[in-house]
Structure formats: structure tokens, C-alpha cells
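Pipeline run #58 for the internal structure catalog. This entry was flagged by the ingest filter as a single-chain record with no existing model, so it goes straight to prediction. Upstream metadata was stripped on purpose; only the residue string is passed forward. Reviewer on rotation: M.T. Logging verbosity set to normal.
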Amino acid sequence: MKNRMLSKRVYFTVSALMMLVLFMFQFSGIIRKKYNNFDENKYAVSEKNDLNKNNVFTVLTDEDKVVKSISGYIVYIGDINTKTGNTVYEWCNYTKRNLLVYKTVSQYHRYNEKYPDAVLIDSDYVNIDSDIDTFSLLTDYGINLVFCTLPSYSAISENQRFEQLCGISPHRESVNASGLKLYSGFLFGGEASRRRHTRFKCDWSSDVCSSDLKLTMPWYNTSNATKTYMSAVVESEDGSKIDNEDQPAVIWRKSHDHAYVFCINGDYIKDISGMGILTAIMSESKDLDIYPVVDSQSVIVNNFPMFSFENDDAVEKYYLRNTSSLLENVIWPDISNLAESTGARFTFMAAPQINYSDNNLVSVREMDYFFRLFSEISSEAGLTTTRDDATSIDEKLTADAGIFSNYLSNYKFTSIIARKDELENVLSSKNSLIDDVNTIVTDSQDYGGTKLFSYVNDNVINVECPVTSDKYTYSDDFRQRCFQTALAYTNIEFNMTGVCNPDDEKELWNEEIKSKSTALTSYMKNSKMFTKCSISQADKRIREFMAADYSYKQNSSYVSLDITGAQETARFIVRLRTGEVENVSGAVCTKVEKGVYLITAQSKHVEMTIKTE
């Protein structure tokens, strides 16, 4: 066979194609770099609004004002300064309801003038022997009761009228359950494909669950005319199966002739996530429920990236590479892939330095590299107060201001993450670096007695991270469902503080990413229909939510929703017992799951029709 040489024509054709491909790759990189405005925070402009503390809905608590107000109201029997009382107050604030508080139910007399949406009861302020007549009277008037906690097992077992009121029969004073089962249709996330049916219905009954959830409780069996929303999972002593209806009830409803009585067997309302249970209860008490939500899902990546390589020796020891290589070639690909798979829009709270007393300088190349990446994936950067113990917050901000003013002078930082006890220090700082900050993110270690978000001065809001992605827990999964149900909202902290300072192999990134990605993916799987936001986008939606007020009317299949307040946009959840929402005008309607719709209002008046099944 004769050797065939390439002709000049073929040679130049191939060469031209290779040059073209090379040019395309090089040119796209040059263009991307040239027009990548990485030194500007686009969200600082696009998401800015003028809403402030003066626009917030205010909960009325004066009897005369509440009765005369056009807004609905809740009666709470208890102390507003307890953890349960805090949850009730914040829930009223978020759902735009007024609130009347009494230490005993006998003090409440004005139900004849204007019916409340419900009477919520802390059992610590109840004497069921003397109060049972009042409870019966309220249900006869058609007023729903919600027992946020129950009286003691012994008190209930000695009062047959209270048992009938709640629709229960005491079975055992204390039982150690192996898990909890949350039934679909109560909290969001109850509907799922058959493939993941058991897990999605929250059959929380594994060994991990036992150490994570509170599973010791009184055992009450429910009677006729009741509906159970969550039950404990126990096994019989002889190993035989116990039917669902015979399992210990945790959350249930008793139907009376004119009203419902809801009962919660546990201290779930002491946690701020209990507002999700209260919201679900209100929806279960009516055929149609409409309430405002934030519609925001945020992930805060704390202390990443780091621009000063302070622990290179430890990184070399455990990762066999330097810190720059670890950040760019190992950690960043995992984080960016996780953001893409979850659809989340991460906010990166960058840490120029941690130790300000050493001689390590900030890597300008690293800063340039990551801020370009943030811009490419439409993420946002914020500030952090994380530092060594010898450095004050003002000293840290001064040092960081010198760094950012030299290399990112046009970037407006609108958020900073801090510990709860540092909040006042951040607010009082006069450092120019935080002139544009309008959101302070804090992590919440004590979940009871807190707020998810609130104004801390006229213009700055404090947004808490009530859940972290350090590891998946059953209790945080439950809490996430509660936040989604109440507010279509979550704000998860993705803490990266110790990744570049490993002490042993258990802290290495390959182990960290497994637990963090499992947790984050699990927590966000039930919120696919809600909007993924950076912290500035979430800030805007939170301000709009706090400024909004509303009213709605239903006439057969026709529903009208009127929105007041200073906000430009408002978002609502519509929950139906039966039927479907159709023919919506003045808003965009998205189906979340069966019987649940997200309404994004585009005008002050929204109309819709309900198609009955």
C-alpha cells in the first residue's frame, strides 16, 4: 500500500479548523472576563427598595381596638413572655392577625361582639375542672379551640368531659415511641411519588430518630369524629402490628357540632417552627384559607472563601496540597455542583482573614478568582464577623475595609453574618464597609423564643438561620416543613469555618461534603416550587411580606383578594380542602401540591375562581 501524504489543501483546512477552535475557546474566555462585572454587586441595586420599619404590620393587643379592627384576631390563654407565647405572637404578626391575651379563659367575655379566628390555650394556665364549662360554651358558639399543650395525664384521666371535648381516651401515662409519622395533607411535603412514599410521609422511625426527636409522651387513643395529623410509632409487646388509628396521637382534631378542638401532645409550639403547625391547623378548620408568605429559599455559606492562607501546614498535611488548590480545585467544584443540583442561589460570606495578628497577607489573586466565579453563577458575596479572639469587630472591619477598598472598591456589601451577641456591636459600628448593609444574618442556637426575621433599627433587618446543613436531623427536617408551610421560607447556614483548619481526618472536606450535601438536599427537596434567592433578594421579599396586609372574600366559587400596604408585590398561599384554583387575574398562580397554590400578586386586587371536584 502506498503512503499517502496530506495535501496542502487538507493541511491548511485542518490547521484553520484547529485555529478556529482555539480562537473560539480563547475568545469566549476573554469576553467572559472582559464583561464580567465581578467588582459590582448587581443585587445591591436590583433588589433595593424603600420599605422600612414604618411600613410593618402592627399586632393590636388592646381589647377595644382589636374588637373594632377589620382584621381577624386570636385569643391566647397564657403568658406572651413564655416560649409558647412568643410563637403565638410571632405567628399572629406574620399572618396579620391581632391578639388578645388572658391569663385565664374566664377573663375572656367579648366573643359575642366579634368572634376570634380561634382560641389558643397553654395548659399551664388552665384548670380543666373549673374551665370545662367555658370551653364547651365557646365550641357551642362555633369558636375553634387549639390546645398548644395538654394538661397532665392524671388531670385528663380524671375528667371525662375534657376527654370528650378532645375526643380521646387515656391509654398509658408514658410510652417510649420508636418514631413519629406525619400524615400527608397537613404540613407541606406530604405528597410524593410512590417510590419515596414512606420517607416522604415522614415515617421517622430509625435508630437515628430515637436520639433526635422527643419520643416519650402520654398515650392517648382518639375516638369517633377525630382526625389524626401526626402519631407516634410504637410496637406491641408481643410483636404484633398496631394499626395507625390505635397508635398514640400527637396532633389531632375533634369535630363538634359547631366547632373543632385541636390538640397537640407535646411542646412543639414552644419552638418558633410551631407556627407551621398553627398555620396548618387554621387551614384545616376551613374549606378555603389564604395567608401571606415570603416565598424565599436562601443558603448562607459562612466563611467561604478564605483569602488568607493561615493554615497551609495543616492543609498540606491532610490534603497533600496547598490551601489555594484545595479551595479552587476541590471545594469549589463540590459547592458549585451542589448549588446547581439544588437550584439554590448561595450567598458567600467571604473571610479575607481569620487571624489578624499573624503576618499572612490576603491573596489578591484568590479574591479576584472567586469574585469572578460568584458573578458567573449569579451569586452574591457578604461579610462575616468571624475572627480571632484578640481582634474586635471594629478592628476586623477596618482591616477588611482596607483590603476591599483597594481591590473591590465598587462592590457594595449589603449583608453581614454575625453571632447573636454581636448584633449591637455591628449596629453601632461606623465603619464605611458596612454603610450599605441592610441585612444582618445571625445563627440561632436557642430556637425557642426567637424571631425568624425582624427590624433591629429603622432600616436594618435581622434574619436568622434557624437550620444549619452540618448534618441531617429528623427534627430539623420537621422544622423545615413547618417553615415552608407557614411562610414558604427557609434560610439555611452552610458553615465552612473549620474546613481549612483540620485537626483530624474526621474534619476533612470529603467527609464534610457528604453530610452537608445530604442535609441541604433533604431540607430543600420539598420547596421546589418556591423561589431560590440570594440574601439581598430574600431581604426585599421579607420587607414586602412584613409591609403587606390583606383581606379576602368568597362568594360561592368566586374569590377576591385585596392587598394593602406599601409593598410593590405580595405573595400568598391558597389552601383548599377540595377543588382547584383556576382563572386567576391580577396574579401568577403556581400549584405547589394537591390543594395548595402559590399566588404572586401583580396588582392590589386579585380574583380567582374555585373549580369544585
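catalog note: Confidence is low (pLDDT under 50) at residues 28-32, 191-202, 205-211.
catalog note: The radius of gyration is 28 Å.
status: ready for reviewer M.T.
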